[in-house]
Amino acid sequence: MGGPEELLERVRATGLLHSRAPVVVLLSGGRDSVCLLDVAVRLAGSDAVSALHVNYALRQESDGDEQHCRTLCAQLGVELTAQRAPPPDDAGNLQAWARELRHAAGARAAADRGGLLAVGHTATDQAETILYRLAASPGRRALLGMAEREGMLVRPLLRIARDATTAYCAARGLTWRDDLSNRDPAYARNRARAQLVPALRELHPAAEANVVRTAELLREEAAVLDALVEKALAGRNRIAVASLAALPPALARLILRRLAEDAAGRLCARSSGRLEDVLVLGDGALDLGDGARAVVADGVLRLERTPAGRSAPRDAGAGPAR
């Protein structure tokens, strides 16, 4: 395992953090975000870096986490915004609610500074995400994982394993906070972290890196497939059923899913599994699940949102979405 300077150079090589370029770091106080903050300061300069910490007041240690972030930012000469946001009674999935809240707050802060929003996802997080999505949701998108850059959101540590961020912090004399809720087996993601990734490492020591590299290759190939979809649709939001049927099935499924997601405004993983049903539909309508409905009129297929109060049958989407 290389030292802190090697990690710094690997992050520099991504081109995601630049000298004097404004960046807001989402700072939880954990080892990955602490590592990211220090790296950002070294690459961009403390004047260009600011941090955002969200205190959800969910654990007894929450105030201690916030104080740790304040102390760290003071040491590094970084401006910190600490936001207190206890969850409402109707928060639902707490992890999803917390993620959406801090990303939204971070995006606003980055926009105000005219910079980027950096999060501390690592290669280990990438492997966990891919394995979790593959188990929970069929389709190629599960294998794509997280992108290094999505708009203003950047993940400078996505090629760095968690072991390396731990070693970096230790070598740099940086302390961090451990969130014990990340070990709670009640959460599916935590079970993937505790069971799946270690099991892969037992099979092959490079398993984690191989999963991450596979995602990188698939992202490149996905860009080619997306270009084929764009070419087939030629800017239209509909396609003749006969034309769809004449295409290779894999491309036809991708087109159906693209139309469904454009119409529903959300991911529609089940839609592509209904291709055969759509091709034999004739003039009529068919709910595909995930809020999308196929409508065929005069041999032309278009997709629309499923009307309020309606949903697809329970067995909808039983076919595989590839």
Tag the structure with descriptive keywords.
single chain, 322 residues, alpha/beta, Rossmann fold, Uridine Diphospho-n-acetylenolpyruvylglucosamine Reductase, domain 3, 2 domains, 6-stranded mixed beta sheet, 4-stranded antiparallel beta sheet, 10 strands, elongated, disordered C terminus
Textual characterization of the structure:
The protein has helices spanning 4-14, 31-44, 62-76, 94-113, 123-136, 141-144, 162-172, 188-203, 207-233, 241-246, 249-264, 275-279; strands at residues 23-26, 49-55, 79-84, 116-118, 149-150, 153-154, 238-240, 284-289, 292-297, 300-305. With 322 residues, it is an alpha/beta fold. It has two domains: 4-211, HUPs (Rossmann fold, 3-Layer(aba) Sandwich); 236-322, 2-Layer Sandwich (Uridine Diphospho-n-acetylenolpyruvylglucosamine Reductase, domain 3), CATH 3.30.465. A six-stranded mixed beta sheet has the order 3-2-1-4-6-5, with helices on both faces. A four-stranded antiparallel beta sheet has the order 7-10-9-8. A hairpin with a 2-residue loop joins strand 8 (284-289) and strand 9. Helix 2 (31-44) crosses helix 7 (162-172). The longest helix is centred in the last third of the chain and has 27 residues, at 207-233. The chain is elongated and about 70 Å long. Residues 311-322 have low confidence and may be disordered.
